[in-house]
Every structure is written in structure tokens, then in C-alpha cells.
Give the backbone structure.
Amino acid sequence: MRLNGKSASRLIVHFVKPEYPPVAKVNYIQGRVKIEVEVNREGAVAEAHVIDGEPLLAAAAIEAVRKWRYRPLVNSTGATPFRTYVNVNFSLHARKVAGLPGNAEEYLQKQVHPPEVITGPGNGFPSRTVQLRILVGPKGQVLDSIPLGDANGYLHEARQKVRSWKFRAARWGALRIPWYLVVKVPIERALVHGDTSSPDIR
């Protein structure tokens, strides 16, 4: 079941406010992070994935949202899981909003050394590849991943696999920061659920 944001917000019983990342503050980064949330029958957040938002803000938002707790959604058959979208807004509340740089995100991006894959896919012959946008944390860990395009039913497997890869975190100066990286995750099977097509080895 999918609930709209307003209906879902009425069910929140434990709210954790995200911390505003210091690097985002000093670089005048603000805005909205949109997160898709899956809540289980007990009201705990089972899954949370960033749909849109600046990476510095997205990392802080998803860390907080995963700690939220909802009152169980009950219908005629009992408690049921549901999905919804959450918007987390970050605002600097500057006295002179007009004085903020209009291209803050673009300027920051030019200063960031993006994350890199240290150890990733092997040298096998994948039957499929799933393209993911991953959010790499400051310790090189995968904080989140979403598919870019059709995952062909292999999203769960691709997400599990990419968590075993090792990454070098993005850097802003000497600081390690969360940042996005787009990767192709190979699904290495001779036959994928009865698929007899030729391997995609791009």
C-alpha cells in the first residue's frame, strides 16, 4: 500500500531531526531531499532510498529517516506495510537570502574529488548489468543506492553485490564527504531466470 506524505506523517511517533552537515553550511548548500520510505507492519522503517537531493544533505537525511518510527497502519486484515515519500528540507535561514550564491552546488562540485571504486566487479561474463547511483559515505561505505533505468528484476541482487565493493570516499580538501557515484553492477550468471540471450559484456 502507498500512502501520500500527509497521511503518513500523521502516523509518525518517533521523529529524528537530521543534523545540518557543516560542509554544506559553509558552502551555502540547502534544499530538499526526497526519500522513498518503506515501513513494515511494526512501524519501523524497513527501507529508505534517496530519490533526489544534494549528496551532503542526502546522507544526513537518510541517516535520520531510517531511525523514524511510525504507528502501524491497520486495515480490515490487520497491520500492513506501506510505502510513502518523505521530503526533508534544509534551509540556512539567512538574513539576506538574496545574498546567497546562486550556483553554490555547481561551485562545490568543482572542488570535490569524487569517490572511486577500489575493488569492484570481477572478470566474469555478466548476463546482465544494473546501473546504480550509489551514495558513498565518508568511510567509503555504501549508504544508499537507486537504479538508473530498468533493473530488470535484479535490483536486490545488484544492491547486495555493490555493498561488498570497496570505495575511496570523496574529498573536499582534506575532508572525506558523502557523494554520489554511478556504477554498473554485473549480474554474473550463465542463465538469468531462464534468459538465453547472449551475455552483455559492455
Remarks:
- The longest helix spans residues 55-65.
- The chain has two domains: 5-93, 111-187.
